[in-house]
Amino acid sequence: MTSTVSSRLDGRIALVTGAARGIGRAIAQAFLRAGAIVWATDVVLRSDDALPVGARFHYLDVRDERAWDAIITALLSEHGRLDILVNNAGVTGFETSDGAPPRHDPEHLSLADWRAVLETNLDGVMLGCRAALRAMRAHRPAGAGGSIVNIGSRSGLVGIPRAAAYAASKAAIRNHTRTVALYAAEERLAVRCNAVHPAAILTPMWEPMLGNGPDRAARMAEFVRDTPLQRFGTPEEVAALVVHLAADESAYTTGADFVLDGGLLAGSAAVPRGAVG
In Å, what is the CA distance from 259 to each residue of 69, 119, 152, 205? Predict the structure, then answer.
């Protein structure tokens, strides 16, 4: 029998990284609506961030091994178990507050900028998966299953000429997800691991490119011109899929990729023109 939306994750303990805005915040909100107890984590709170009402916010720098140890210890001390981990925190490499963003094409990308992206996007996922596997091995109730969901990107499935580090990090997340899934199954851990690959989701990341001027609508239309559904996706649409992957209804799903791109990769327009997503 299918559970109602409000009870699909009833009482589950979930940790979501990068949850202060965008997709991470939408996932935390969806988990709360589904009945989960949510630890929403991020490395920074901006003045325009609105944390999900009911979530417990904790600072977490996903690049920091000791920080992962500390937050998992605190979570287990309070709740006794971890049921769901969503590795959502990530950077594009174009974030900057003091001028033009660095160049990220393969010819001009610096080693420091390359490492900065992979440190958050890939090291953070590795550390999160490792922490969750250890916690779920030691603290799984009999017969209960754990779920790890890694947020990748369409950019990890195709080449992105001017976002080399971002694309490489997201491609690696895809493979690491499969590795974690197979390892957990081999170890009989009752833990599943899946990856979600969004593209052109309307989050704050897009705002600098879209602007607030009279040409905003035209810019939006241009960015999704090659997308069959002819629109941006929403963080809530990503969150709905993540809830499904966290819930018991997906108990036979592990090591899988789920692409939310409005149908773009179903056809031939695979390479976006300079954008990431």
Answer: 31, 24, 9, 19
User: Residues 231, 234, 237, 242: is their CA dihedral positive or negative?
Assistant: positive
Average pLDDT value for residue range 24-34: 97
Q: Which residues contact 143 (CB under 8 A, 6 or more apart)?
A: 190
Closest residue by Cα to residue 89 from 71, 77, 107? 71
Token pair recorded at residue 201? 């989701």
| Cα torsion angle, 253, 254, 257, 258, sign | positive
Per the DSSP assignment, residues forming a β-bridge with 40 are 16, 57
Task: Encode pLDDT of 156-174 as tens digits.
Answer: 999 999 999 999 999 999 9
Residue entry with tokens 């819930």: 247
In whole angstroms, give the CA distance from residue 201 to residue 259.
Answer: 12
170 CB-contact burial (10 Å; exposed 0-12 / middle 13-18 / buried 19+):
buried
pLDDT at 65: 98
Amino acid present at 4 = T
Backbone angles phi, psi at 56, to 5 degrees: -105, 115
The answer, yes or no, to whether residue 151 has pLDDT greater than 80, is: yes
> Exposed, middle or buried, 252 (CB in 10 Å: 0-12/13-18/19+)?
exposed
85 alpha carbon, distance to own chain's centre: 10
Q: Answer yes or no: 166 catalytic.
A: yes
Asked if residues 109 and 164 have their Cβ atoms less than 8 Å apart, the reply is: yes
Catalytic residue among 59, 166, 183, 252: 166
What are the pLDDT digits (tens) for 219-261? Answer: 788 888 888 998 899 999 999 999 999 999 999 999 999 999 9
